[in-house]
Amino acid sequence: MKLCIVNVNEESVSGPYTELLTKNFNRVKRDDTILGWKYVKSLKRATDTVLSYAIQLNKTDVIECFYEAYKEGYDGAMVACSGDPGVYEAREIIDIPIVGPMEATLFMACMYGSKYGIVTTADRRWSEFCEDLTVRYGIHGRLAGIENISVPSKEAFTRGFLEIDWMRQEIEEKSKKLIEAGANSIVIGSAGLSTIASAANLSKVKEYNAPIFDC
């Protein structure tokens, strides 16, 4: 099995994220599964994904990466972004499974109770985008709420990749708040925060034994 991961930042700025995410995948993949990476050409900062224009540029790059993976013989591909950019479009033209991590995780969370909550970045625009995704996927009515971490994205996706215990505390605090507000499970609406959470072995709100899903 050969799977492709498409990163939404240029390779030159993706080192710590790629390293953490690869370690997470290596913990769960089969021994005979080969992971390959592809990188977009346009985006240099993860924080720019809150901008509609940057999202549009990224979609085109991501779709091209998916198509390259298909032509190179990959068996499936996913985009390493909780915004699921380019997934819908790529599925129309590419004959291998294309996974949107946020889509997959939201539906997984719906299997663990009637309500789920989303923990995401400090950017209001991104939390609004996460809510838009729940509408697009038809499960907005089961959303208990969205909580933003307090750490600015510029710090979360630089220092945060190196100081994962610091970020773990932020994610735990917001997850607990959502569970106490009625959620049965938590979806981390950020690929970067998800990667940090799994690297820190954060998979549940212990006080309530409620699952936290890394998208």
List keywords for this structure.
215 residues, four-stranded parallel sheet, single chain, 9 strands, alpha/beta, 45% helix, five-stranded mixed sheet, globular
Description:
This protein is of the alpha/beta class and 215 residues long. Helices cover 45% and strands 19% of the residues. It is built from 9 helices and 9 strands. The protein has a 5-stranded mixed β-sheet with strand order 6-5-7-9-8.
Question: What order do the helices and strands come in, and which of them pair?
Answer:
Layout: E1 2-7, H1 15-28, E2 34-39, H2 52-71, E3 76-79, H3 87-93, E4 98-99, H4 101-109, E5 116-120, H5 124-136, E6 143-148, H6 153-156, H7 159-162, H8 164-180, E7 185-188, H9 191-199, E8 204-205, E9 210-214
Parallel strand pairs: 1-2, 1-3, 3-4, 5-6, 5-7, 7-9
Antiparallel strand pairs: 8-9
Helix pairs in contact: 1-9, 2-3, 8-9
Which runs of at least 5 residues are low in confidence (pLDDT < 50)? none
Question: Tally of extended strands?
Answer: 9
Radius of gyration: 16 Å
Secondary structure category: alpha/beta
- For the record, give the distance between the C-alpha atoms at the N and C termini, rounded to a whole number: 21 Å
Q: Which oligomeric state applies?
A: single chain
Give the proportion of residues in helices.
40-55%
Number of helical elements = 9
Shape field: globular
Mean pLDDT: 90
Strand content range:
15-25%
As laid out across the biggest beta sheet, the strand order is 6-5-7-9-8
What is the string of SSEs from the N terminus onward? EHEHEHEHEHEHHHEHEE
How would a crystallographer describe the biggest sheet? 5 strands, mixed
